[in-house]
Amino acid sequence: MNAIYLRHLKYIVLAVLIFFPLFGHLGSLPIRIWDEGRNAINALEMLKNGNFIVTHYDGTPDMWNTKPPLLIWLQVISMKLFGINETAIRLPSAFAGLFTCIGLLVFSLKYLKSFWFGFITVFVLITTFGYIDFHATRTGDYDALLTLFTTLSGLLFYSFCETKNDKQLYLFFLFTALAVLTKSITGMLFLPALLIYSLAKKQFLPLLKNKHFYFGLISFLILVVGYYSLREADNPGFIAAVQGNELGGRFLEVIEDHEHGFWFYLDNFINKHLSYWHLLIPCGVIFGFLVKDKKINRLTLFSTLMVVTFFLIISTAQTKIEWYSVPMYPFSAILIAVFIYYIFNVLKNTTVFNETLWYNITPFIFLFLLGVTPYQQVFEKTYLPKEHRFEVEFYELGHYLQDAARGRIDINNTFVLYDGYNAHNLFYIKILNDKGIKTEFKDWKNLDSGDKVIAQQKHLKEYLIKHYKYEIIFQKGNVVTYKIYGNKE
Q1: What is the structure's pLDDT at 250?
Q2: What are the tens digits of pLDDT across the range 367-408?
Q3: Which residue in 57, 285, 393, 415 is a FRET match for 440, CA 20 to 30 A apart?
Q4: pLDDT digits over 428-469, tens only?
């Protein structure tokens, strides 16, 4: 009975450890600008118009966000189940993180016959600050779902090379197709690493001679080309927009001022995203090649190729954005786990500890001491999430509209003034309108006597003070509600 209890206890402990970073207070912060805000609008409009092929933004086909709609479909399902709110928009990303963890654990159990290697890999991943963050598992962006599919497709290709099981080859093509249907061409950026590995292990020619490779490839093309063809038929010009935005634009040109040097991603790993774990990556590579376990040798080679090749591709691209590196983190976690798992086994098999202790707990003490600090940091980051210091003022209006959508503030018959891209705020305007609350954006240069308006941006408030007669009727922080009495003479 005790053995059974202990066997299940370790899974329960891991589940609890995973839960808080991925799901803790997921809906606390308001919708973020750019991708999450855009996706939220796409999903909300798809929920209303029932068009599951063409995504829409503010009533028209979205030709700016040209990603396929797999994430949007999941967000629509989530809103149907859990209501129209921040949590529903973010749950697909959180569940993608959960299933990535499960995939890594299952791989470890099946391939290495080791729960603890999987435990360590998952633990490293959920304490990787760039993975448990905005634009990854904590927001309604593409990257966590993309990472799920690229991780599974990579591990399935590796498993196929080990076992020659054709079922794994078909699953590889399926998950690669799902990666493409999540974030277009980015879903195929690991393919060069897979090619290099198959050549290194002398698997490339046998693969080309395998009829199931071609059946899988055809299935991949049916799924991917099928969607793009349907979208183009329903929304002419879509493929041209994809070519300009994704196939050439971001790699060959700097988009939206995201210009950085070649070592941008490495600097982020060291100083921010992998700050706690990054030094263990070279340790994992070295130990992974030196240990006598051939399975670990091959897994280390594979994971190293996946990390290095992907790193070189995104570092060579002209447009560099910090969350583009998210798909690397599961394979980085594997390399880190190789080193930690080696130390864990040394402690587990040390004769002195086994002979002097009733139960050798030293490897678990080692894991606790190694992991307590990063887990505490990520727990604090997610349990009571806060805006970054430099974003507090920017999202002040978002918090205000979030409170209004939750019924805490009455903004009925009030206009919102905002200068700039506003998808993150438009989401709340649409929610409020659906609840019968009359509010919309208005041009601050054309206000009428009797208008009630909300402004938060400093230059807008200065414009109101300079050009209108007004009365302040409510203020919360920097968000001010004015009643306009006409233009100043």
Answers
A1: 58
A2: 999 999 999 999 999 988 888 888 999 999 999 999 999 999
A3: 393
A4: 999 999 999 999 999 999 999 999 999 999 999 999 999 999
pLDDT for the residue 1: 45
Pairing of strands 60-61, 479-487: unpaired
Whether residue 442 contacts residue 451, with contact meaning beta carbons closer than 8 Å, is answered with yes
Residues 6+ apart with CB under 8 A from 357: none
Question: Checking DSSP bridges between strand 439-441 and strand 414-416, what pairing results, if any?
Answer: parallel
| Position 317 confidence tier, pLDDT thresholds 50, 70, 90 | confident
**Is the CB of residue 74 less than 8 Å from the CB of residue 142?**
no
| Burial per residue of 25-52, b for 16 or more beta-carbon CB atoms within 10 angstroms, e otherwise | ebbbbbbbbebbbbbbbbbbbbeeeeee
Tell me: the pLDDT tens digits for 225-284? Answer: 999 999 999 999 999 988 877 766 555 555 655 567 888 899 989 998 998 999 999 999
Copy the structure tokens of residue 107: 């791989």
Q: Classify residue 210 by burial, with Cβ atoms within 10 Å: 0-12, 13-18, 19+.
A: middle
Cα–Cα nearest to 145, from 221, 79, 94, 85: 94
Cα–Cα distance list, 489 to 140, 206, 444, 484, 485 (Å): 47, 83, 17, 14, 12
344 within 8 A of 291, measured Cβ to Cβ:
no
The CA distances from residue 260 to 35, 238, 250, in Å, are 20, 29, 13
Q: What radius of gyration do the chain's Cα atoms show?
A: 25
Residue pair 178/316 in contact (Cβ under 8 Å)? The answer is no
Distances (CA, A) of 280 to 106, 248, 254, 339: 23, 35, 32, 7
